[in-house]
Amino acid sequence: MYYLRISDLSRLLSGGQCKAIGYKSPKKVPEREPLPPLWLDPPEASFRLGDVRLTGNASVRAAIAARAWAENAADPTTLSDLVMAIPSSLDRISLVEAGRSWRRGIHTHVTFELDIAPDPLYNRITQNMAAHNESIGVFADLADSKQFNSKPGDVRAALTPFLANTSVGVGNYKWMLYGDDDTVFYLNNVLELVQGLDHNMPYLITDHVWWPDHRDGRDHFIHANRRAPRCLPCNYRDPLAANKSLVQGQFAAVPACPCTPQVLCEVDNVGAFNRGGCGFNYFHPGNWYFLHGGAGAIISSGLMRQNAFEEVKDYILSHKFTSGDSMFTQVVHDVIHVLPTDPGYGFFRPHIRMFDPGWRGEIARGPEDEQTSDLGNDPGGIIER
């Protein structure tokens, strides 16, 4: 797993909303086995991204994979190639500070709602910025309205990756980690995941995506939902693929470079797209089809290179959204024309999700919503397993 929410851990440690599960004697933990090869071995080929039109064609994928392997062999991705983009607010500075321990070694860009120099909270975060390799962006809260019907800081949350990209410079990093201010990434595992991928390819990587299920004549908004349309990484392979069937109802994802709506439309097995023009039948990206911000995502510099900040900002301010993570997903689709890529390891292993701590069963709205039944998904269950 690559992610854990501080709020979930704090709730568990404090005893809130958790049932005692009893003491179990510790088990001997076996040495970790290396991940199976999820990408083809580097073929003997050379390739430049601009030489061909980006497509899902297998030969093109092989050429792109060759380039990625060659570049990674010559210049392996390290912590200095990562950037963390965090949307926050001044009243949540403690969470930002708490994450400094695990973010050591990478640059972090945090966006707040204001930068009033005399404000003690602002001074508190800025006085140690240099020591912790941090930069700060500012985007004010927007008043609640029919257009932005969730939280005043949602627009800031959606713009944070683009603000970070502008601040750091797209040529100064390879991969951006995007998550809430209580989201934790395990950096060594992140490095292992991206080593076989081309950071110049437009990638939005996560396996925790919202998607509605139709039951009882109603839509049930579920995350993470294995029915959500998504791709697999470029030239992905898995030793289980030959003899392992998909979970019933799971989207039949395929490798793609990059993950475009056209690629997903061709393999759609859940009725997400209309067959006439490959448009979305109902759940357009951003409308209950979006990455879960609390679980986070990994964004390639190649994706961020495809946009201009002012274009993105103007788009967001002229549309209606549900939340910050839905805004971001819709912008990536409508402006950049890319959809999520599943990292792949859990695709044929339904008990594994790489951007989630492992809540069991279906989650309607989310375990963070105290008034919502989570069908047995509790922090104690995670520890018990």
Automatic annotation (TrEMBL):
PANTHER family per UniProt: BETA1,3-GALACTOSYLTRANSFERASE (PTHR23033), HEXOSYLTRANSFERASE (PTHR23033:SF50)
Originating species: [Myrmecia] bisecta
UniProt keyword terms in alphabetical order: Membrane, Signal-anchor, Transmembrane, Transmembrane helix
Residue segments, region Disordered: 360-385
Annotated localization: Membrane
Transmembrane segments: none
Entry protein name: Hexosyltransferase
Residue ranges that the Swiss-Prot or TrEMBL entry lists as coiled coil: none
Domain of life of the native organism: Eukaryota
